[in-house]
Amino acid sequence: MVSKESCRNEIRAAIRQLSDRCLYSAAKWAGEQLVGIEQDSSNFTPSNTRFQRGSSSIRRRFSTNESISTPQPSVGFSQPPATPLPQEDEVIDGDLYLLAKSYFDCREYRRASHVLRDQMSKKSVFLRCYALYLAGEKRKEEEMVELEGPLGKSDAINRELVSLERELSALKRTGAIDSFGLYLYGVVLKEKGNASLARASLVESVNSYPWNWSAWSELQSLCTSIEILNSLNLNNHWMKEFFLGSAYQELRMHSESLAKYEYLQDIFSFSNYIQAQTAKAQYSLREFDQVEIMFEDLLRNDPYRVEDMDLYSNVLYAKEACAALSYLAHKVFLTDKYRPESCCIVGNYYSLKGQHEKAVMYFRRALKLNKKYLSAWTLMGHEYVEMKNTSAAIDAYRRAVDVNPCDYRAWYGLGQAYEMMGMPFYALHYFRKSIFFLPNDSRLWIAMAKCYQSEQLHMLEEAIKCYKRAVNCGDTEGIALNQLAKLHQKLGRNEEAAFYFEKDLERMDAEGLEGPNMFEALVFLATHLKTNKKFDEAEVYCTRLLDYSGPEKEKAKSLLRGIRMAQTGFPSMDMEHFPL
Amino acid sequence: MAGLTRTAGAFAVTPHKISVCILLQLYAPSAQMSLPFPFSSISQHNRLGLYLLSLTKSCDDIFEPKLEDLINQLREVGEDMDAWLTDHLTNRFSSLTSPDDLLNFFNDMRGILGSLDSGAAQDDQIILDPNSNLGMFVRRCILAFNLLSFEGVCHLFTSIEVYCREAHSSSAQYDESNDNLESLIQHDQMDMEKYIMDKATEEVELQKNASGRVPFHLHTPEALFKVTEGLLVTRKEKSRTNTKKAEATQLACASSSTVDDTLVDESLFLRTNYQIQGFLMEQADAIETHGSSLSSSSIESFLQKLQNLAPELHRVHFLRYLNKLHSDDYFAALENLLRYFDYSAGTEGFDLVLPSTGCSMYGRYEIALLCLGMMHFRFGHPNLALEVLTEAVRVSQQHSNDTCLAYTLAAMSNLLSEMGIASTTSVLGSSYSPVTSTASLLSVQQRVYILLKESLRRADTLKLRRLVASNHLAMAKFELMHVQRPLLSFGPKASVRHKTCPVSVCKEIRLGAHLLSDFSAESSTMTIDGSLSSVWLKDLQKPWGQPVFSQESGSRKSSTFFQFCDHLVSIPGSVSQIIGASYLLRATSWELYGSAPMARMNTLVYATLFGDSSSSSDAELAYLKLIQHLALYKGYKDAFAAVKIAEEKFLTVSKSKILLLKLQLLHEHALHRGNLKLAQRMCNELGGLASTTIGVDMELKVEASLREARTLLAAKQYSQAANVAHSLFCTCHKFNLQIEKASVLLLLAEIHKKSGNAVLGLPYALASISFCQSFNLDLLKASATLTLAELWLGLGSNHAKRALDLLHGAFPMILGHGGLELRARAYIFEANCYLSDPSFSVSTDSDTVLDSLRQASEELQALEYHELAAEAFYLMAMVYDKVGQLEEREEAATLFKMHITALENPQDEEPNMA
C-alpha cells in the first residue's frame, strides 16, 4: 500500500533533488503531481480548500466513476515502495557547486561546467556533464541557423556528444555513476542513434530513481512499438503507471491508457496533468463534448496553461465554436505568443473563419518554432487543400508522415489530395496506409470506397467490400448503407439492395431523419416488393410514401394502383376467391 | 538538369578555393616583373596557368580535392619548383591563425586583379583580366567571402584547420617518392603505416578536444585499416592497392570506392545545389550500370549522410528508390518513390520537365504514376502496372503533358509486349482508357502496335530523341517477332500474306541509331557540368605522363581510352546505352535471320564499345551471345573456358543468366557425347529454373521441354518424345510463340525421321519450312530443308536425286552460317545421298564423298558428337574399303571404334564442369 502521504513525501524530496540538479522540467512535473494529490482532511489549509473546491464540483459532474466521493477499500497502490529515497552523497553542496548552479541558472552553461572541472562527486560530475550537454545543444541550434544552405540545414550536431559519451561510458564501467548520470547517458546515446543502449541506460536510471519524469519521457519516446514496451524490465512503482499511461497513448491504445489514468486518479485526483492526458485520450476516441468540458475545467484551475491547449482548440474547431476559439487564442497569445501551441491555436481560428492564407502563416510560425510539430504539419496540409494548392498540401502531409509514420490523418490527407487531382488509383495506397493505422474508422473506409467507385476506376466490387467494412465499424453518417444499396441496385442484385435499403430505412427511422434517401429507399422497396408479389409489405411502404408531397407521392399512388390492379386482377383468374 | 535552379550564393568559399587563390597569387603577383620569382621559364609559368585554369573550371565539381591531392598534382605540374610551391602553400595556410588573417588575405587578393579599364596597366606587369576565367574566379571568391557573416567566416576558419591538419599528417610520405619504383614501394609501405597511425591518433585527439566534426571521421579508421591489411599481404598486391587508392583519391569518378572514403571527408564542405544534383545523376547512372553488383548498403549509408546534410534535397529519395529497386526491395522502393514525389511534386531534377512550362500548381504527378507503373512492372505485377499506367495516361492527358504521355505509351507497349506472351486474356478488364479503348477489341499484339505508333508519333513531334530511338528499337523488335497483318481489316477479303518484313526491321534499327548523329543538336541543353568539368582536369593531366600513375595495369587502359573518347564527344550514358541496345538488337535479329557472322560482329561491337556504359544485364546478354556462338562454331572446350570468365564477371548480378547458359551448354554437350543421364538431369534443372517462386518464365519453360523432347529422342523413346513435342506445340500456339513453333515442328519431323516414319515426318518438315519462310528464319529453314531431304531419302534410294537437289539448294546457307553440327550433318547426308544414289559410282568419284566426310569428321570431333562422328568414320571406312585403300580403311575403322565405345560408356570422362 502506498499511502498518499508517502507519495507526497517522496515527491517533496524528489523535487528538491531534481531542482538541485537543475532538472527543472522534471521538478516542474513532480510539483504538479504533488499538488495534484488529494489533501487529507486533517491538514487542510484554507487556501487549499478554496483551490480544490473550485474544480471538484465540476469534476464530479462528469467523472464516470465517483471514486472521490465513494472511497473504495483498495485506494492506493498494492505494490510496496520498491525504491527508497536515495541519500544525498553530500549533505552540503560545495561552494563551487553553488557557483556552478547559479551560472547554470543564468544559462551560462560552459561557465558552469568549467567551474566544476575538477569536482569528483557524482552530483558535480552530473551537473558538469549536463551543462556541457546543454551548451552543445545551444551551439547546435545556433549553428543550424548559421549553416543553413539552400538545401536545408547542414550537418549541425552537438559536438559535446562524443566526449560526453566517452566519459559517461567510462563512469558507467567503473560504476561511479548515479541514476541522473545514467539518464544523461541515455539521452546522449539516443542522440547518437543508439536506441537499444539508450533504452537500457534509461531503464536502469528509472529503476534506481523513479521520480525523474524526464527520464521516463525519454524512455517513452524510444518505445515505438508495444513489443519494445513489453520487453522493458521495469520495477514496480507508481511512477511506472504514469509512464505506461503515456506510452499506451502514444501507441494508440487509448482505452488502456484511460484505464491507467483512472487508476492514478485515486491518488492524484487533482492533477492537471492527468486531466489533460485523459482529455487527450478522450479526444482520440472522439468524445468531443466530454473533452471540451474537461478543458474548460482545466483552464479554470490553471488559466495560464499553454500545454495541450492546441488540442482544446481542435475540439472547439470541430464544434465550430468561433467565439470560444477566439477567446482561447487571445488568452494564450497574451500568455506566451511564441509557443508553437499558441500559433497553432491562432491558425485554427483563422481556418475556422475561412482565412486560409493567414492560417497557413500561423502554422508556418508554429513549425518554425518546432520543426517536428506533427499536428501543425497536418493542419497546414488541410489548409492547403482548402486553398486548392494540392502539391503544397501533399508536401505538408508528407512531412507530417515522416515526423510520425503512424499519423493516420496525414495519410488520409495525402490520399484525399491525390484523389482531388484525379489520381484515384495512386490515392488508394495512401488510404490503405491510413486504414492500417486506424482500422476501425468508418470514414476512412468510406473514403476508400469512394475512390474505388470513382468513374476512372469503377471497381464496384471493391467499393462494396469497403462499404461493408464501414458499416461494420459503425458508420455514423449513414453513407455506407445507402451506397451499398445503390451499388447493389446498379449491379442488378435486387435482393441485396432491398436488404440494405431496409437497413438504411431502419437507421433513418431510428435517428428520425428524412430526405431524398428516404424516398429513394421507400420507392425502391415498394417497387421491389411489388415485383416480387409481396403486395402487403409493398403497400406499407407506399402508404408511408403517401405522407410526403412531391413526385414521390404520385409515384406511390401509381404503385398502389398497380398493386390493387395486381391484387384484384390476379385473383380474377382464380375462381374461388372471386368476391362476387 | 532542367528544373533545378541556380540559387544565389551557390558559390561557397571552401579551403580548396583558398588554395587556388593562393596559387593564383603566385601566378600573378601584384609586383612589377615580367616573370615572377620562382619561375625559371615562361613555359613553366604558363603551365601553372593552365593548371590553375583547369582547377577553376573544375571547382563546380562535387568533390574537391584534399590538400594532399592538390600537392601531388602540383608536384607534377611544377617539376623542379614543386617543393617551393607546396612550401609556400602550406606556409600561407599556417599563417592564417585568426579570422582576421582571412579578411586580410581576401583584401590582398583584390590587388592581383586589374582594374576594369585596363589602360592603366604597365606592359611588364602581370595582371589578371577581371573578365577572364581566372579573374572571374577570384572575383567570385572575393564576393562570396564578403557575403559571409562573421559566423560564416568562423566556420570557414575551422574547416581550413581541418583541411590543413589532414594534409599535414600524410604529407611526409610523398617527400621522397620521386625515386625509383623499388624504393618508392618500400617507403610507401612504411609511410602508409605511419600515416595510418598518425591518422588514428589524430582521430583520438580530435575526439578529445571535440572541436572537429567528429562523426564524419569515425568511419575513416576502418577503411584505412583495411588498406593496411592489403598492404601487408604481398608487395605485388600492395602496389595494386596503392594504385587503387591513388585512383580513388585522385578525383571524382563515380565508383563505389570513392563514395566510401572520399565523401566521408568531403561532407565537411557545403555544396551547391547544382553540384549535388550533378553528382546524384552520376550516382544514378552508376546504380543502373552496375546493377546489384554495387553494394546497396554503401550507397544507402552515403545517401543517409547526404540526407542529413541536406534535408531539402529530395532527389536523395529518388536515388534511394533506384537503389532499392536494384536490390529488389519492393516495400522500401515503393515507399521512397512515393516520398520523392510527395515532396518534389516531380519537379526536381527530372530532365523531361521543361522549366518553361509552369508546373507550380499541379506538380508533375503523372511522372510519379509513370515511375510507379514501371516499378510494378519490374517487380512482376503487370496488372497493377497497367492500372497505374492507364491512370498516368489519363492524368497526363488532363494536364496536357505530351512528353510524359509519349513515355507512358512507350512503357505501356513495352509492358504489353512482355506480358502478351504470358496471357492472352484481356487485362484491361476493369479500367477504361481513352487510348486503349479503341483497341480493346484487338489482340494484345495489335494494341502494342498501336501504342508504339502513337508514342512514336508524339515523341517525334516533341523531338524527344532518345524516346524516338528507343521506340524505333521497340518497333524493330515488334516487326521481328510479329507477322505483319493489316490492322482492323479481317474477313475473307483481307490479304493473307503473312510475313515479317526484315527490311522494316532493318529500317527501324537504323532509325534508332540515328540518335547518335541527332544528338549533337540536343547536347547543348544537356551538358552536365558536374561531371564534365572534372574530366577537364583529368585530361589535362594525361599528356604529362606522371610516374605515379604509370603502374596502372594494361588491362584498364582500354577502358580508360574509351572513357576518354566518351568524354571528348560528351555523350551521356543514356544515349550510348540506347545505341548499344540497337547493336544488341541487330545481333539478335541476325541470329534469328540466320547470319552468324553478322550476329557475332554486332555483339562484338557492343561488347567492346558499349560495355562500359551499358547496364550489367545488357553486358551479360552480350557475353552470353558470344559464348553461345563459341559453342556452336568452335566447340565446347572454348565455350566452357569463356563461361568461366563470364561467371566471375557476372555472377553477382541478380537474375543472372549465366547459370542458365551453363546448363544449356552442359545439356548440349551431354547429348552429343551420349551421356543421356546427365542430359536428363540438366534438362530437369532447366525446368526448375523456368518456374521459380518469382514466376514462370514462359520462354524458358518452352526451351526446357524442347530440350526434354530432344533428350527423349536421343534415348530413342520416340513416342514419348513425340508426345512432349505435341504438347509443346500446343503451348506455343496458345501463347503465340511463333518462332518456337517452327522449331518444334522441325523437331517433330526429326522424331518421325528417326523413328523411321518418313511419310509422317514430311508434313511437319514442310510446315516448319513454311513457318520459317513467313518469319524469314533462313538458317532454321535451311536446317528444315536438310531434314526434309533426309526424309525424302528415308523414303527410298530412288528419291536420292531429289534429296540431293534440296540439299544443294540449302548448302550455301548451311555452310555460310550454320554451326558445326549442322554442317557436319549436311556433309554426311551429302555423302549418304551419293552413296545411295544408284547412278553414283564410288570407285570413280570417291573424292567427292571422302572430302565431305573428312570435313564432317573434323567438325564432329571438335564437338565430341560421338554418334555422328562414328557414322562418318563408318562411311569413310566403307568408301576406303570400296576404293581399296586398306590402310586408311583401318584408320577410319579404329576411329569409328573409338567413338562407338565412347558413346557406349559416356561415364568414362565425366566432364569436370558439372
Tags for this entry?
heterodimer, A: 580 residues, Serine Threonine Protein Phosphatase 5, Tetratricopeptide repeat, 30 helices, elongated, disordered C terminus, B: 914 residues, mainly alpha
What would your notes on this structure say?
The complex is a heterodimer of chains A (580) and B (914). Chain A is mostly helical and 580 residues long. Helix content of chain A is 70%, strand content 0%. Chain A has a domain at 1-36 and 90-145 and 157-222: Tetratricopeptide repeat domain (Serine Threonine Protein Phosphatase 5, Tetratricopeptide repeat), CATH 1.25.40.10. In chain A, helix 12 runs antiparallel to helix 13. The two termini of chain B are 50 Å apart. The A-B interface holds A 142, 146-147, 149-155, 157, 159-160, 162-163, 166, 389-391, 394-395, 397-398, 402, 414, 418, 421-426, 429, 456-459 and B 7, 9-10, 149, 151-152, 155, 207-208, 210-211, 213-216, 267, 270, 272-273, 276, 308-313, 334, 338-339, 342-343, 345, 360-363, 365, 368-369, 372, 387-388, 391, 394-395, 398, 430-432. Chain A: Residues 63-83 are annotated as: Disordered. Chain A: Residues 7-279 form the Cdc23 domain.
Average pLDDT metric of chain B:
70
Average per-residue pLDDT of chain A, rounded, comes to: 82
Which of globular, elongated, flat, extended, rod-shaped describes the shape of chain A? elongated
SS content category of chain A: mainly alpha
User: How would you sum up the major sheet of chain A?
Assistant: none
Which percent range fits the helix content of chain A? over 70%
- Fourth-level CATH superfamily of the domain at 1-36 and 90-145 and 157-222 in chain A: Tetratricopeptide repeat domain
- Sketch the topology of chain A as an H/E string, one letter per element: HHHHHHHHHHHHHHHHHHHHHHHHHHHHHH
Tell me the name of the CATH class of the domain at 1-36 and 90-145 and 157-222 in chain A.
Mainly Alpha
| Class of secondary structure makeup of chain B | mainly alpha
Q: What's the total number of strands of chain B? A: 0
Beta-strand percent range of chain A: under 5%
The major beta sheet of chain B can be summarized as: none
Low-confidence stretches of chain A: 44-82, 572-580
CATH fold group of the domain at 1-36 and 90-145 and 157-222 in chain A = Serine Threonine Protein Phosphatase 5, Tetratricopeptide repeat
N-end to C-end Cα span of chain B = 50 Å
Would you report the number of β strands of chain A? 0
* Percent range for β-strand residues of chain B: under 5%
CATH architecture of the domain at 1-36 and 90-145 and 157-222 in chain A: Alpha Horseshoe
